[in-house]
Design a protein that fits this description.
With 150 residues, this protein is mostly helical. It has a single domain (20-146), classed as 2-Layer Sandwich (Glycoprotein, Type 4 Pilin). The protein has helices at residues 2-20, 24-75, and strands at 115-118, 123-128, 141-146. Strand 1 (115-118) and strand 2 (123-128) form a beta hairpin. The chain is rod-shaped and about 95 Å long.
């Protein structure tokens, strides 16, 4: 009698074990679905991050342009470099710093410095290499601006 009850318990335990957990296929299916969802979320997030960095770069270029315009009004000429906006290059009319945040405020959305070049005595160009960090290709962000009153 003892033996029969042990056999019943063993059969019952085997049946419970089979129904108690997930099969390997079920686990692989769940892991695959989670992986697909994670890939979709990461792809969407990276697009948002890129757009945010582009917007931040355009805003930085606009802020630098405003600072250059204020410098030109006070000093009567364009700065020789962007550092002239945060430290006096040697002029009695300098009223800076012209941009808050110093050198950090003159970086693009990817942490690269905004590039400044005078194209004439009254005009300048502001550029960012864009997401790839390389100048001279399609993802560059530029902001050409003339000095005020010119």
């Amino acid at each position: 009698m003892q033996r029969r009850s042990n056999m019943k318990k063993t059969k019952k335990n085997d049946a419970q074990r089979k129904n108690a957990g997930f099969t390997l296929i079920e686990m692989l299916l769940v892991i695959t679905i989670i992986g697909i969802l994670a890939a979709v979320v990461v792809t969407q997030f990276s697009g948002v991050t890129r757009d945010t960095s582009i917007a931040a770069t355009r805003q930085a270029i606009a802020n630098i342009s405003t600072a250059i315009d204020a410098y030109e009004i006070n000093m009567g000429k364009l700065p020789s470099s962007l550092s002239d906006l945060v430290s006096n290059p040697g002029g009695a009319n300098w009223r800076g710093p012209y941009i808050r945040g110093g050198v950090e405020a003159m970086k693009d959305g990817w942490g690269q410095p905004i590039q400044y070049s005078k194209t004439s005595e009254t005009a300048y160009d502001l550029k960012s290499p864009g997401p790839d960090g390389q100048m001279g290709n399609d993802d560059d962000i530029t902001g050409f601006t003339s000095a005020p009153g010119k």
